[in-house]
Design goal:
- By secondary structure, the protein is an alpha+beta fold.
- It has 2 domains: about 190 residues, no CATH class; about 220 residues, no CATH class.
- It has a 6-stranded mixed barrel with strand order 3-4-8-5-7-6.
Length: about 425
């Protein structure tokens, strides 16, 4: 039976060649769209490793010598010392649970730093977070075993994320207290703890990262008028205190009483707002891709269904004649379905080869946004072939349903034709 069907398909190769080419292109396009949407959704829904609810970023500024309200004091005023005083006063405010200091490190800050870390002579590129010890309390970043990271970070130690440990020490389940060498440092540092993987934000995915400490001593001596604008002072407030007007009330209170020497709080902004600014383009892109995917699906449905509808309708007389020659209607439908699925099977081979090459050329992350220049290999991500087969199977299944819809309607009409009418047409 199959040989007979292949012989029929070969005899009609001029018409079937265009259908075969259409099926190849449609399978690849549907697979690409499906995998792109799947990868985007998967990256968007990945655990972030931090919690920004009830957190705020404070913008700290320093008055210049000619500004109104400038405080002139005997001796040298250290900007860093004033910042520590300001943070201490903020910490004592009602409703404030924790205060942290960092540079280019808090979630959704739209900035990033990198460094190379070495195990022996093997280098690994890491996303670099420079934070105070309280940073882990503000954003509720936990150790990989769920415990607190408070007090673990010191000037002579670092904290690595779990994905960094997996990449740098693949053969060791516990890398705590092991030693690594940091780029630009003259001394080795000890791994004090391992945190959960941390994402830069939705659509970015988790990348191997390292935390180093901003101690009070460093803040006091390292922060000056030239870099105070880079300071990230973040706070976590209690759920009871965090009402809709909290930012306005905080800023009003800060303007009246919360300052240290010439440092003052210029602005306060929920980190949630910064999240929206950072990921809004990704959300719009995902929505647009979803709409394009829906449009493509409708177009493919109309194209595939219409092609087989027209093809089957053209053969109405042939089908009715087969019924007149003794073929049962069920056998006739089975014959048409088999013919369509053989064409689909012939299209699967080149479509699979094209899709597989695209999959590996993109490290399996078709349309999955950005990872700050980290290749999937650098991120320690294993290419998941299961995603390829899920998307490919879904695409082929959809096309099979469309083919059935395009075949069954005209076929049912054809088998209802009277034999005399079919013979008359012949």
């Amino acid at each position: 039976m199959i040989q007979h069907l292949i012989h029929i398909i070969w005899n009609q190769r001029k018409q079937n060649a265009w259908i075969w080419l259409e099926l190849v292109l449609v399978i690849v396009c549907l697979w690409y769209t499906t995998l792109s949407l799947y990868n985007n959704y998967h990256r968007y829904s990945e655990p972030l490793g931090f919690d920004i609810t009830h957190t705020y970023r404070l913008e700290v500024a320093e008055r210049s010598a000619d500004a109104e309200g400038y405080i002139s004091a005997p001796g040298e005023q250290k900007t860093g010392s004033s910042l520590l005083k300001l943070m201490d006063r903020i910490r004592r405010m009602e409703g404030v649970e924790a205060v942290s200091f960092s540079i280019a490190s808090h979630p959704y800050n739209s900035m990033s730093n990198y460094l190379q870390a070495y195990v022996d002579t093997t280098a690994t590129r890491l996303l670099w977070y420079r934070v105070s010890d309280s940073f882990f309390d503000v954003f509720r970043i936990k150790a990989s075993n769920g415990s607190s990271l408070r007090g673990k970070l010191t000037e002579s130690s670092v904290i690595l994320t779990q994905d960094a440990i997996n990449k740098m020490f693949p053969a060791n389940a516990d890398a705590t207290r092991k030693v690594i060498h940091m780029e630009g440092s003259h001394e080795d540092v000890r791994i004090a703890a391992v945190s959960t993987p941390v994402s830069y934000g939705e659509f970015f995915g988790c990348v191997p990262s390292v935390y180093t400490l901003f101690s009070d001593n460093y803040i006091e001596n390292g922060i000056n008028p030239g870099n105070i604008n880079m300071a990230e002072v973040c706070i976590r407030v209690s759920a009871n205190a965090d009402r809709n007007d909290y930012a306005d009330r905080f800023l009003e209170l800060a303007n009246n009483s919360i300052h240290a020497d010439n440092l003052y709080i210029k602005d306060i902004r929920p980190v949630e707002y910064m999240r929206y600014d950072l990921i809004s383009s990704g959300v719009k892109r995902m929505r647009m891709n979803t709409l394009l995917g829906g449009f493509l699906l409708i177009s493919v449905f109309l194209g595939i269904t219409g092609t087989f509808l027209f093809r089957t309708r053209q053969r109405r007389s042939e089908l009715a004649l087969r019924v007149a020659m003794g073929s049962s209607r069920n056998k006739l439908l089975y014959f048409l379905f088999q013919e369509g699925f053989i064409l689909l099977a012939l299209a699967l081979i080149p479509a699979f080869i094209i899709a597989w090459n695209i999959f590996f050329a993109t490290d399996g992350m078709v349309g999955a946004g950005t990872s700050f220049g980290f290749a999937e290999e650098e991120r320690g991500v294993i290419i998941r072939a299961s995603r390829f087969f899920i998307a490919f199977s879904f695409s082929v299944g959809l096309i099979a349903v469309m083919m059935i819809a395009g075949i069954i309607l005209p076929a049912l009409r054809a088998v209802k034709m009277q034999p005399a009418e079919a013979l008359h047409d012949e």
